C-alpha cells in the first residue's frame, strides 16, 4: 500500500494506528496461547503423540497446529508479495519516466529470490509437522532435524548475502572491529530511488 497507494497509506496508517498495532502484539500473543489451551478440550486432549518432535503437534489440536504453521509461512508469503509489488511498481515508473533510478542494480531481484527461498525453506518443517499431525505420513528423527535446521541455515545465508551487497553493513562491521575503511560517496538506497522516481513521474505528469 505504501508504494502503490501512498496517499491511502498516509491517511490510514497514522502514527497512532501504528502504536495501536504495536500494542496489540502482546494481546495477540495471549489470545493465541489461550486458543491453544482451549483447542485440546475434548477428544484432542486425550490424544497421545509418541514422537515428541514438536510441542505444537503433541499438545494442541489439529486446527490450531495447522493455524500455527500456516501463519508462519503466510508472513513470509506476504513479505514476498509486498516486495513483488515494489518491484513491479518501480519497473512501471522507470518505463514511464525513462529514468536511471530503479535500474536492475537495485538488487530487488536478489531480494525476491531470497524471499522465495525463505518461503520454501521455512515451509519444509511446517509440511513435516502437519503431515505428522494429520496422520498422513511418518518422518524419522533425521528428516525432522534436517527440516528444522533450514531456518538457521537460511539466517546464515541471508547474513552472508547482506554483508556482501550492503556497504553500510560492512562499514558498521569494520567499525566495530576497529578497522578503518575507505569512505566513499554513499549510493542512494532502494527506498530513496523509489521516492525520487515517483517524484520525477509526478513532476513530468504535472508539466505535461
TrEMBL record:
Q: Which UniProt keywords apply?
A: Membrane, Transmembrane, Transmembrane helix
Q: Which SUPFAM superfamilies match?
A: Family A G protein-coupled receptor-like
Q: Does the keyword Cell cycle apply?
A: no
Q: Which residues cross the membrane?
A: 20-43, 63-87, 108-132, 144-163
Top-level taxonomic group: Eukaryota
Protein name, as recorded: G-protein coupled receptors family 1 profile domain-containing protein
Q: Which species does the entry assign this protein to?
A: Caenorhabditis remanei (Caenorhabditis vulgaris)
Amino acid at each position: 500500500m505504501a508504494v502503490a497507494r501512498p496517499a491511502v497509506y498516509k491517511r490510514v496508517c497514522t502514527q497512532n494506528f501504528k502504536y495501536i498495532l504495536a500494542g496489540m502484539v502482546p494481546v495477540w500473543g495471549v489470545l493465541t496461547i489461550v486458543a491453544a489451551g482451549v483447542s485440546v478440550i475434548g477428544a484432542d486432549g486425550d490424544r497421545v503423540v509418541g514422537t515428541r518432535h514438536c510441542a505444537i503437534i503433541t499438545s494442541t489440536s489439529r486446527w490450531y497446529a495447522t493455524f500455527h504453521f500456516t501463519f508462519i509461512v503466510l508472513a513470509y508469503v506476504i513479505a514476498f508479495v509486498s516486495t513483488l509489488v515494489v518491484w513491479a511498481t518501480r519497473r512501471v515508473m522507470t518505463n514511464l519516466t525513462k529514468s536511471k533510478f530503479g535500474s536492475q542494480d537495485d538488487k530487488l531481484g536478489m531480494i525476491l529470490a531470497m524471499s522465495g527461498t525463505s518461503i520454501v525453506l521455512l515451509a519444509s518443517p511446517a509440511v513435516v509437522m502437519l503431515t505428522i499431525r494429520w496422520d498422513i505420513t511418518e518422518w524419522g528423527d533425521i528428516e525432522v532435524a534436517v527440516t528444522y535446521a533450514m531456518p538457521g541455515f537460511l539466517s546464515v545465508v541471508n547474513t552472508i548475502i547482506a554483508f556482501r551487497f550492503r556497504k553500510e553493513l560492512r562499514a558498521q562491521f569494520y567499525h566495530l572491529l576497529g578497522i578503518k575503511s575507505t569512505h566513499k560517496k554513499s549510493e542512494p538506497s532502494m527506498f530513496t530511488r523509489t521516492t525520487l522516481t515517483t517524484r520525477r513521474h509526478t513532476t513530468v505528469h504535472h508539466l505535461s
